[in-house]
Each structure stands twice: as structure tokens, then as C-alpha cells.
Amino acid sequence: MPDSPVIVVGGGPAGLSAATELARVGLKVLVVDQGQALGGAIHRQPRPGVKSVASAAQKRRWDGVMTGLIAQRDNITINLSTRFCGLDHTGTVLLGGTINQLIHPRALVLALGARETVQPRPGWTHVGVETVGSLQTRLKTLGQAPTGRILLAGSGPLLLALGAELTRLGNPPVAIVEAGRPFHHPLTALRLPLGYWMEACQYLIRLRLAGVPILNGSHLTAIRSETGRLQAEVQTPRGHKTFTIDHIGLHDGIRPNDIGLPDCATLPVIRVGDCHEALGARAAIADGRAGGAALAARLLGQPKPVPDREVKRQLDAQTRLARIYAHDGAERLHQLPSDTVICRCEARTVDDLRALGPSPTARQLRLDGRFAMGPCQGRFCADWVNQLAHSKSPQSGIGAPRWPASPIAVSDLLAATTDTKGDIL
């Protein structure tokens, strides 16, 4: 319907950049985000009265996004604390949270960012163990590092970034346990864009000056909780190490936050930013702009714009980073002890999965095994359950598109209206 808005789900850089491009050509846009402020994960805003810990480069990027958004304020409506609950076959979108709406938009833009992957390990459900993304969110919202001894483990450049930030705030990690061997791939690293090199050098210099050991080719193999503290068992190329710490941050990469997201034959649906493909923070703005411009041209019957070269450049960089940080984590997944929890929400173990027999169906996994039936709906465990169950695709395992995209209350459906009023910038 020409008078209906384009709904953009996600108030991060990709979603807001797409909204700006759509509004620039006169289309009405409704941006919804489940957070209490715009910014997404990478540009999460601090609490009132808290000084931002964002770098100068991050502040410049965010200021550029907001400047463009404010310039198109007449065509953009913002609804915060609002969840995207699902899209049905008729093209109707259900929104929940502080408002409950059933809307048939002109199009739907999904800009839900990335989801952090954390591979199961014995003891990873203990109190004090969280994701690196969770620790990073705490830094951004509170402006200070957690107290106590912190160990970072897993794989990827985010471990260095958080380690450097903790160091800058006065509590450097006791060690960074990196499964890959990034320094063994100098030729691949040399082909990364200059910005990646500069950022990595800043992190490494800060960590080196603080004396933080970076254990490459190492794995956190088990976590125990004893006398109120955590014991982390780490296997390094030179032997076994044990760390006594208060906090552990785990991170094994990022994936598109697309669990359960549907497509629709009767409504244009596009995905931008990390929701489209794991492109990283640098490409979010460029991909949002490109996606918004392409959708605007489609809705207005105009020629498709020329693809943005920056998106291709950043995608190539992510491919190289994947090679640099490659490791044998997938093989280690099949060596987990039988009592290791792989579905945190329902506390289901490797043994529970094996009890379902070889190659269980999605119905068996969810209804009989209770995998992915908790609040996260498989966002944490789907990858690992499907691999251990030998499922070849999301359609044969858990994580397939569905309605609703996330659990909703019956009261949300009963209270839903067709009102699209929101807060204007």
C-alpha cells in the first residue's frame, strides 16, 4: 500500500542508514528497536551521566549516521522498546513491547545485526562466565571495567579489542586465550585494509605495555567453580595452564542474527548489515545505505543503483580475517564430554542429544529433546546442535524460518492495533 510506511527493524548503523536513504526519496519510514536508545551493539549509548568509552573514530561514524537521519526527520518515525515479533504469509508484521501493532507495511528492512557465537565448553554455564559481547556492553553502558581478574578466551579480533579496552579502563585481562594463530598468516594479513592494521596495532601495543599474555593456538578446555572463584583449564602449544579468575569472557566469532527470520512472497523483505552477512562494523553503514537505496529504487520503479564498492571491500576483509583466525574448534566440538551442556536455556547436554538417535529431525530436537525451546530460541545452541546432530541445513535442524520469529504472549496479539504513531526525532 503506497501510504504504508517501510518498517526498518533495528536502530543500529545499518538500519538507520537504510532508513535515511528511504526517507531521502520521500518514503515514509517506521524504525523500531527493542532497546531504549538508538545505536545497536557497536554504538550502544552510555547510561545518563556516564562518560562514553567509544573511540574517536566510532564517535565520528555515529555522528555521521545521526546527522543524515536528523536531516530526514520529517519522513522517519522512531519507536523504541519495541520488538519485531514476526511476519506472516500475508505480509503483516506484528510488533510488541511498549506498543502492540499489526501493520501491513510497504516493505520490511531487517537490520538485526550479528549474533555472537560461543562454542560449548565444560563449565561454561557457571556464574561469572559470559560472552565478550556482554562484557563490552557493560563497558559501553557503565563506562567502567568489572572488578576482579578477567580471562578472555575463544577466537577473533574482538578478544583483542575488549582486552585493550579493559586495559585502558584500568583492569587488563590476566590473559587472552586465542584458538587461532593469527601471526602465522602475514601475507594474508598484509592484504587487509589499512584501517584494520592501525586498529590492531593500537590494541597490541596497549596489551603489550600492560604485560597481557596472548596465548595463540590455545584452547580453554574446562571451567570449574571452586570457593567462589573460577578455575580455567587452558591447553597451550607448550603445555597445560590453570588460571584462577573472577570473570571469563567467551567469544568464537559472529554470525548473522537470522535465526527464525522469515521471507515473504507478498512483501519486499531485505536484510542489511550483519543481519545480511557477517560484514563487521565498518561495512554496516555502507551496506545499510546500499540496501536502502536499492529498495527505494525498487519501490519507486527506478533503475537499480550501482553496487557499493565499500561493501565488497569489507566482505573481502572479513574473508581474510576468517582465514587468519582459522582453528580446529569444529573438531573439538565432537570431543566434548557427554555431560557438557549445549543448550543453556533448557540445560540439555551432549548425552541428551545422543539419546535422540542418529540424525534427529527438527521436530525430535525441539519437542522430544527440548533443544532451542528456551528464550533464545536457538540463537546460542542451533549451530552446535545441528553440527552434533549431523543436520546438513537449518531446514533439517533447528533455526529454520518460522512464525512468530520469537516467543510472544497471547495478550500481545489481543492488544495489537493498527496504529503507527511513534516518537518523531
Description:
The protein has 425 residues and is α/β, with parallel strands linked by helices. Helices cover 32% and strands 21% of the residues. It has 13 helices and 21 strands. The protein has helices spanning 13-24, 56-71, 132-142, 157-168, 186-190, 194-209, 281-300, 309-324, 329-333, 350-354, 362-368, 382-388, 410-415; strands at residues 6-9, 29-32, 76-79, 82-87, 93-97, 101-103, 107-110, 114-116, 129-131, 150-154, 175-178, 214-216, 219-226, 229-236, 239-245, 247-251, 254-256, 269-271, 341-343, 348-349, 423-424. Strands 18-7-1-2-3-21 form a 6-stranded mixed sheet, with helices on one face. Strands 9-16-10-11-12 form a 5-stranded parallel sheet. A hairpin with a 3-residue loop joins strand 5 and strand 6. Helix 1 (13-24) packs parallel to helix 7 (281-300) and helix 7 (281-300) runs antiparallel to helix 8. The longest helix is centred in the last third of the chain and has 20 residues, at 281-300. The two termini are 24 Å apart. The mean pLDDT is 90.
Strand content: 15-25%
* Helix fraction bin: 25-40%
Shape call: globular
Q: Give the count of helical stretches.
A: 13
Q: For the CA atoms, what is the radius of gyration?
A: 22 Å
Most strands sheet: 6 strands, mixed
Beta strands, count: 21
Average pLDDT score:
90
List the uncertain runs.
none
Judged by helices, strands and strand pairing, the structural class is alpha/beta
Break the fold down into its secondary structure elements and pairings.
Blueprint: E1 6-9, H1 13-24, E2 29-32, H2 56-71, E3 76-79, E4 82-87, E5 93-97, E6 101-103, E7 107-110, E8 114-116, E9 129-131, H3 132-142, E10 150-154, H4 157-168, E11 175-178, H5 186-190, H6 194-209, E12 214-216, E13 219-226, E14 229-236, E15 239-245, E16 247-251, E17 254-256, E18 269-271, H7 281-300, H8 309-324, H9 329-333, E19 341-343, E20 348-349, H10 350-354, H11 362-368, H12 382-388, H13 410-415, E21 423-424
Parallel strand pairs: 1-2, 1-7, 2-3, 7-18, 9-16, 10-11, 10-16, 11-12
Antiparallel strand pairs: 3-21, 4-5, 5-6, 8-17, 13-14, 14-15, 19-20
Helix pairs in contact: 1-2, 1-7, 3-4, 4-6, 7-8
